[in-house]
Amino acid sequence: MRIGSARAFFARAQGGSFFLDEISELPMSMQVKLLRVLEEREFYPLGSSRKVKMDVRFISASNRDLEQWVGEGHFREDLYYRIHVIPISLPPLRKRKADILPLANSFLATFSQASGKSVREISPAALDKLLANDWPGNVRELKNVMEYAVAMATGAVVTPELITGAMTRKDAEPPSLSHAKDKFEREYLIELLELNHGNVSQAAKMAGKYRADVYGLLRKHGLNPVDFRQRKTPTRGS
Question: Taking a C-beta distance cutoff of 8 angstroms, is the pair 49, 40 a contact?
Answer without folding.
Answer: no
